[in-house]
Inverse folding.
């Protein structure tokens, strides 16, 4: 069922040019330089430390590392992070790979 | 992002959360429609964040389901400030006191400017105003009105021809015009004195010129009374001789009996109001359309009264407040209804006609006698035709025409 939905979503984005994040429920991450990251469509905060943030998404977990992190805004599906960002990792929930 | 606006106006608190992975509490809050921002991790077990006052209730509900400890670190915003100030009595008292102080100062006379007159007159104006309660530091709404002030100054200071009083906020700007005594400059130009009216001369006071008429002469309007030429002019005089004649500016006061006729009609029934002189004051304060009695309210009302109302606005800095102070001056009034006899009506008619004539002629003239020429009564009225003999100055100057 889920797979079928994803396929339809893929088809829609490819053929109708709809934004992929809304159709596929994927996180949209916007960074401004190194110091701002704006993540939409997340599914919850897992870990928040000065140097690491983990966010749940539909597909898995997004890990952002850096230093001096502050959450500027926290909303059910949006989060704005300020600090010095060094990496953004995606961890897939199925095979725990990058 | 747009959800967090006007934080200061709404009021917000900084919270400190203690417990295992405290950031998850904020996540829980966010999931339950509580806006949180500026989340910082202090150490492994403590976290700080901000939220609105209005969300605190929801937050407390959520906390009960968890095992976190919540501390309030800072309270900021208008609601807190308001609470603080309203609970601070001296501050509120000071605020009210300062408001009234400014109100007081805004309604005071701060300066009186006098312009356009000599220093002596200015001094006179100032003392007159001072005596009548207009001075620096006086409250403006207790002062008489501007028109009253003008009339007062004109009455008290005879040297003033005109005075304008303008109220400019807390200052009174006065502008005066002095009467200038005009010295008779025409003295040099030769002239005759001629009669202004028909009449019989009774007195002559000639200081310059050659009198042509004498006492008890009847003169007509335009007749020369005192000539400006000292020599009698001969007919067919040559130009040379004429130039030898001496010309002066004739100066004289010629009193003559003149005659006037007038008609008056007086009703035999009189119906009028008279003020008894008894009066009292009432004070009101009006805010918008509502007025409150302030002073002099428990006094007996007169049976018949005439009310004079004076409305003064209050000022706050340069603004006029919608608050007025009203002074009501209530005069007792008598209603007089009387029936006059024909004789009385006649007498009143004559008095009235005399008064009118005197006003018309001026102060120099004197009414010597009056005579009733004709009288008719009827229709509740007495109609009189009167004849007056008046002694008045009939001298009028007339320039000599020269060189023609």
């Amino acid at each position: 069922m889920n797979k079928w939905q994803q396929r339809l979503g893929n088809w829609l984005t490819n053929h109708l040019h709809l934004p992929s994040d809304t159709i596929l429920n994927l996180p949209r991450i916007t960074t401004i330089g190194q110091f701002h990251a704006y993540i939409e469509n997340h599914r919850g905060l897992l870990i928040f430390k000065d140097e690491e943030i983990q966010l749940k998404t539909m597909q898995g977990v997004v890990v952002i590392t850096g230093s001096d992190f502050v959450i500027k805004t926290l909303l059910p599906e949006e989060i704005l992070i300020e600090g010095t960002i060094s990496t953004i990792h995606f961890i897939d929930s199925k095979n725990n790979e990058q | 992002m747009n959800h967090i606006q006007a934080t200061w106006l709404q009021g917000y608190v900084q919270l400190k959360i203690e417990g295992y992975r405290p950031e998850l509490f904020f996540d829980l809050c966010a999931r339950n429609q509580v806006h949180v921002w500026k989340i910082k991790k202090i150490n492994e077990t403590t976290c700080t964040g901000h939220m609105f006052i209005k969300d605190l209730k929801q937050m407390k509900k959520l906390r009960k389901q968890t095992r976190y400890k919540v501390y309030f670190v800072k309270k900021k915003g208008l609601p807190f400030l308001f609470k603080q100030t309203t609970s601070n009595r001296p501050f509120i008292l000071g605020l009210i006191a300062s408001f009234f102080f400014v109100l007081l100062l805004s309604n005071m006379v701060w300066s009186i400017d006098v312009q356009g007159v000599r220093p002596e007159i200015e001094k006179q104006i100032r003392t007159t105003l001072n005596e009548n309660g207009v001075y620096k530091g006086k409250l403006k709404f207790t002062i008489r009105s501007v028109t009253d002030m003008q009339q007062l100054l004109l009455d008290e200071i005879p040297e003033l021809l005109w005075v304008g009083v303008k109220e400019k906020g807390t200052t009174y700007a006065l502008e005066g015009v002095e009467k200038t005594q005009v010295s008779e400059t025409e003295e040099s130009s030769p002239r005759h004195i001629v009669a202004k009216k028909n009449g019989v001369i009774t007195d002559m006071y000639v200081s310059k010129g050659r009198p042509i008429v004498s006492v008890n002469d009847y003169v007509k309007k335009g007749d020369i009374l005192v000539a400006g030429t000292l020599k009698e002019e001969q007919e067919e005089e040559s130009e040379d001789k004429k130039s030898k004649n001496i010309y002066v500016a004739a100066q004289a006061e010629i009193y003559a009996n003149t005659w006037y006729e007038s008609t008056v009609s007086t009703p035999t029934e009189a119906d009028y109001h008279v003020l008894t002189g008894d009066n009292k004051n009432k004070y009101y304060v009006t805010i918008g359309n509502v007025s409150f009695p302030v002073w002099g309210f428990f006094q007996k009302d007169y049976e018949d009264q005439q009310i004079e109302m004076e409305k003064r606005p209050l000022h706050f800095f340069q603004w006029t407040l919608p608050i007025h102070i009203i002074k009501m001056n209530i005069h007792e009034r008598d209603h007089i209804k009387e029936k006059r006899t024909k004789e009385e009506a006649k007498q009143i008619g004559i008095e009235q006609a005399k008064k009118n004539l005197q006003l018309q002629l001026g102060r120099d003239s004197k009414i010597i006698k009056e005579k009733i020429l004709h009288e008719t009564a009827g229709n509740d009225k007495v109609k009189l035709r009167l004849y007056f003999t008046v002694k008045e100055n009939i001298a009028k100057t007339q320039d000599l025409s020269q060189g023609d």
Notes: The mean pLDDT of chain B is 84. Chain B touches chain A through 21 residues (CB under 8 Å). Residues 342-361 of chain B form the longest helix (20 residues).
